[in-house]
Amino acid sequence: SRSGRRSCAARCAQQDPLLLRVARGEEAERTPVWLMRQAGRYMAAFREYSDRIGFRERSETSSIAIELSLQPWRAFQTDGVIMFSDILTPLPALGIEFDVIKGKGPRIDNPIDSMEAVRALRPMDDPLSRLPFVHETLSTLRSEIDGSGATLLGFIGTPWTLAAYSVEGKADRNCRRTKTMMFNNPAVLHALLEHLTEALIAYVGYQIEAGAQVVQLFDSWAHHLSPEQFAEFSMPYSERIIAAVRAKYPHVPLIFHANGAGGKHALLAQSTADVIGLDWECTMAGARQAIGSNRTLQGNVDPMVLFGTEDQIRKAVTRCLVEGGPRHHILNVGHGVIEGTPEESVGLFCELARQSADILAAH
Ligand code: CP3
Questions:
Q1: Residue 29 C-alpha to ligand 1 middle, in angstroms?
Q2: 151 CA distance to ligand 1 centroid (A)?
Q3: C-alpha count within 13 angstroms, C-beta hemisphere, residue 323
Q4: Residue 232 carries which DSSP code?
Q5: Considering its fold, how many domains does the chain have in total?
Q6: What is the ipTM of this complex?
Q7: What CATH number does residue 343 fall under?
């Protein structure tokens, strides 16, 4: 199916957008760029909405979600446009209600604590009626950017990361409730992971049918897991999603981004994702060696670098481009853009990707 996906570009009259081609493993004229959490409070235009409108309403009203998705693309010409939404957005469709408290992050009032609670969850049987705004947002974004050279990204949280949110109810430094369940009641955790996996397969399909061209899996809470725990409670479930999506939509590349995966590169090398996202605790050169020369790697500049001087930003991005490229690399930050980041630093970051062919030629 990999070669089938490659030859599609040759068949299509108009060339596919840059990021999509690189995610598929194709050669390209330069390194594409986007930033995780590129829509956010660091942008004045975003704050005009976030100061007035709560997160659920902002992300679940298509007209607003579309505008917030497009803001960083208009301002910085990112090669990727990511739907403004959240990894928790699909949970209410399963019967898990959440809210995002300003300054504190997501809250789930009735965390999952038993097999009964898992059995009471709904399947993702009718996303169009339960999550209609996701379809509206993605399909409109797709028609807005088609022909511009940009790629539309959908995303999900992995089963492990969503299970951890659903069991904790909020971020916990030690992931205590979920890991207590892992040790004392693993059958409940596996049942929850199982349920989320099936729901997420349906939800990714829904995003793709609506127009998502690349889908990223965020395993944001992978850093809580030892390599052995990651191999049992995270990767097999993400891999099932990747396999199911690949079987049905072989033309859609998948990005797997696990936070804190520095000690897990040997496992990541076994992932079947098209693209492996990396945080900044590794060098691109080290990751390249561990994961292989033919896989597209995404990352991995420390987002705090964007608080540094222009010189420091140039230096960090150049090192990342040189070590990560010239082929099979998508420039990104190693984790989401941080509130307070100067907008002009994000602009410079994206500009350096547009100059990547010259930067790489000079090295
Ligand atoms: O990347 C983008 O620009 C698209 C939008 C996006 C959001 N969340 C918007 C959002 C994406 C891709 C996410 C994914 C997400 N959400 C992750 C994975 C990425 C990562 O950081 O590892 C995680 C762990 C979440 C859970 C989540 N949602 C947290 C921790 C928070 C609170 C953060 C805060 O600053 O308060 C949210 C809410 C949220 N989702 C915000 C945004 C812009 C901030 C709150 C707001 O805008 O009101």
A1: 31
A2: 20
A3: 20
A4: I
A5: 1
A6: 0.91
A7: 3.20.20.210
